[in-house]
Every structure is written in structure tokens, then in C-alpha cells.
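Suppose a classmate hands you a notebook page containing two proteins, each written out with its sequence and a corresponding row of C-alpha cells. How would you begin to make sense of it? This section walks through that situation. The first entry is reproduced here exactly as it would appear on such a page.
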Amino acid sequence: MSEDNRIGIGVIGLGYWGPNLVRNFSVADGCALRVCCDLDEGRFRRLAAYHPGARFTPRVEDVLQAPDVQAVAIATPVSTHYELARRALEAGKHVLVEKPMTMRSDHAEELVALAEKKGLVLQVDHVFVYSPPVIKIKELVDSGKLGRLFFIDSVRINLGLFQRDVNVVWDLAPHDLSIVDYLLGRLPRSLSAFGSTHASREIEDVAYLTLDFGEGLIASFHVNWLSPVKVRHMIIGGSEQSLVYNDLDMAERIKVYNRGISIPSQEADVRREVPVTYRSGDIWSPNLPNQEPLARMVADFIQSIKEGKQPITNGQTGLRVVRILEAAQRSIKAQGARITL
């Protein structure tokens, strides 16, 4: 692709996640890394040697006002997402923003509306949605091979990294909430959440969320910064088959189980007690490609800009996740009160 046809990229924030974005945008087809920004000049000095074709600056204005930048990736603290994304959209830039999109649903709604008004792409960095295991799970759910979904149990726990501006729900839960949103494409009808504080009086470091999607489907999430072991585990139970997704098992990240119960049909004689029967069949693990999720996400961002289409993790998906997080926070502060969405 010629230089003139490439989309110029600016990256704001070079802390934990920003360098990964820089690395992927620097090699992605159809784009060119133009400007990188961070308040800590030491951070971009370390990256500058590896990306001589890009400019490095401590000034956000140098990114937003750059005529050779058509799209901006934002990887800064959550509390800054709304302001930076709004300014980028107002400057006519397409936006990729780290998760969660904002800390308030009304701010998320504003960004979605602004992007739509200006005809710009707004994408949220829900990177797990682009991972081969999650794409395969989506395929299995959509194909009906699991049958009607009964439950989703998710555990994402480890020791630290403690955040200063958000609690463990806002930090870890967006990953699994975005996966479930990708699988189901809708908000739950209600939720309840509990959380507790240990290292800080204000910031919860252990939390449990329960989402009711109706039609018998319940999803539960355990997030924790205090666990001595790292666990990335999700179980999805269906009427036909169930699966276990273990993101730390490099050999078999997904296992599909033909095990469960057989439920009598609704046409069965309700006057008789029909016993539940059990089935125990094969277990199989699908072969998954070895592809970096972030590279797939960056490619989706660039393609969406070029084709004028919505990316998979678009602003609406980010908004739904923020609404759940916001409701979960209200429930935690109300001692687990049920919140209707």
C-alpha cells in the first residue's frame, strides 16, 4: 500500500498497555505510526529508538492537531478516557480507547453519539473478544451446539496489580463482561454485586457479580486482586453441551463436554414426577490458531476506518459494559441490592 493511502496513527499513553499498541500499529498493514504521546518523557525516550519514523511528544495537542494523524489510540488511566476521546472525536479523529470506555454511562453515550454524528469509528479495546478461543466459543454458541445456555461462571483472579482510580470490578471485570456481551449481544435484565475492601478503605479489591439475563440464564463473575494464584477460567453450561475455557492452558484452552442432564420436555405429563437423567459423553478440544488478539483488533480498527463500518467491539458494546459496571458499583455500595437495567 502506498504511503499516501495509509492511515496515520497517534498513540496517547505509553505506560503498561500503550507500548503494545505502538508495536502492533507499527507493523499493521494499511496504517503508519505517526505520533506517540506520554507525560513521562522517559517512557517515550525508551520507545523512540525502536520507532525512528514516529514523533514523540509530551503534549496531547501535538497528536490531536497533527494533520497526518487520522486515528488516535488512547491507553491512559480510565478517569481520562472520556475527555481525551471526546477531544479526539471533535478533532475529527477516529478513536480506539482502552477498556473500560468511560467511568460514566452518560459520558459513554455522548461519545457514541458524537462518533455517529461525525461519521467516525469509535472502538473499545476489549481485546479478549479477538482471541482465537473466544472466537471459537462464539462459533459454538451461534451454531447451537451448546443448546440453550443455562449458566456462565467466570473467575479472573490474581495477586495485584492494584489501581488507584478504579476498583477490581472496573479493572478486571470488563474482560469477561465483554466476552459475554460478544456471545449474547444484549444487556442483562438485572444484576447484584458484592465487594470488599482490604488494602484501601475506598477501593474494592474482591468482588462477586451475578447477572440475570432471563430465560433461565445466569452469569456470575469473581474478580480479585488478593488471590495467591492466577486463574483465568470460564465455564459455559448448555442444554446440549458445555465448555470450559482456561486461558492459562496453552495446550487446550477450550474443552467441550458432552456431559450434563437431560431435561424432560414441557409436553411431558406434569402430573408425574419425571426423574432427571444424566448423560456422560466425549470430551474434545478444538484446534485453535496461534494469533495475537491485539493484532486482530488493530486490523479490525484499520479495516473499519477504510470501509466505513462498525468494528466488532464498537462504541455500543463499550457502552453496554460501562452500564453493567456502573450498576455493579451501585449494587456494591447498597450491600448487594438488585439493580434493574
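The notebook's second entry, a different protein, reads as follows.
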Amino acid sequence: MSIIKIPVQYVGSLGEKTLYTLFDSGANLSCIHPDFLGNIEIPRSLGIIRRLATAREDHFIEVKEAVRLDFIINDVLLSDEFLVVPELTEEAIIGVATLQKWRIKLDFDRDQVIVNPKASIMQI
């Protein structure tokens, strides 16, 4: 597991905000802490509650909401679903599913996130 943490701009129906985002090759899904959603987007209830395993053995976090957010990396506009995780230790996490969806590459030697502009929804 390797990680990179950089500021990323998030955009929702209520506005936008820059959050320090952890790019985590050990996390399956993308997540956001509910405290940082206030002026970005309104969470929507999930049909089925998710129980996410944590690093601590036998400890799970119940996730009841999610949001769809646009986010901008290196002037490239992307979009995905983020689980709203109450006990999240980071402002936001981009997980493997999002990395693969957008073919985002992580350069751990240079602490850089590389996004192919051709994979974007559109250029900004």
C-alpha cells in the first residue's frame, strides 16, 4: 500500500471546496468526511447500509450515505461517487476503483498524481 496526499478541488451542486485528498492504493472505494460536505453537496441515503472494515481488527464503520462529486486534478475534470464516512481520518480519500476508472497513475517517487487529459469528462 502506498499513498500520496495533495489538495484537490471538489465541485457539487452547492458549491466547491479544496480538500486535502489521500490517494490510497490500499483503499477500495473513494470516501469523504461528512464535515467537509457542507457547502459542496447534499448526501443521499444508500439503499443498503455498508459496513466498511478498518485497519483495526474486528472494527467496522457503518456508512449510510454517498455523494456524487466532480473533482479536478491538474486541470482535468473527473467525477465519481464518494461514500460519506463519519469516522474518516482524512478529509477525502481517492480509492482504487476511482484510480482505475479514470486511469489515474500515482508516481510515489515524485509524490505526483498523473491524469491523462483524454480520460477527462472535459478540459477546464
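A careful reader of the second entry would note: The chain is about 5% helix and 50% strand.
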